[in-house]
Amino acid sequence: MFHGQDTGDWFRDPPPRRVGVHALIRRGPTLLGVTRPYRESVSPWGLPGGSVAPNERRRAGLSRHLATRLGLQEVAAGRLLVIDDVPEKPGRHREGTNYVYEVEIPDDVEPTVTEVGGFGEARWVSFDKVGDYAVDHARRRIEQSLLAADTGQTLELILGIPQDINDRAA
Length: 170
Known about the structure:
Blueprint: E1 18-27, E2 30-35, E3 45-46, E4 49-51, H1 58-70, E5 80-86, E6 96-103, E7 122-126, H2 130-133, H3 136-151, E8 155-158, E9 161-162
Parallel strand pairs: 1-6, 5-8
Antiparallel strand pairs: 1-2, 1-4, 2-3, 2-7, 5-6, 8-9
């Protein structure tokens, strides 16, 4: 049973849904990956980002996370690449929607994990080695984000799997 179904009024009793924002930061044939000790049950590696605070805009939330977690000041979200819906998996993660944005940083700036950021490590990972770091839907989300960046598309995913936007049931 979905939250709110018993009342029938999802405006007054909305279902809880986490909103995540992530950055695809590329440098040559590599992307920036981070370890997330707090999410190892899902995937030990992923894209940098985090959850948006209540009443915070997605782009502002991403800029906040990049500044506080990686010391990347004055970095802004670029083009929206991916919208990835993640159904709840009890004991592992809540239902959520993740937005992946393309983010550019100057070549002379090196992201550094901050003490308060919650990330364990940041590393430049070759595109062809993503599967050695990220697993399951985190790996698929990264691969689809790279595809979207290269093709100029915005992709809709469920657990990292592309969805046919013409399928009304999706």
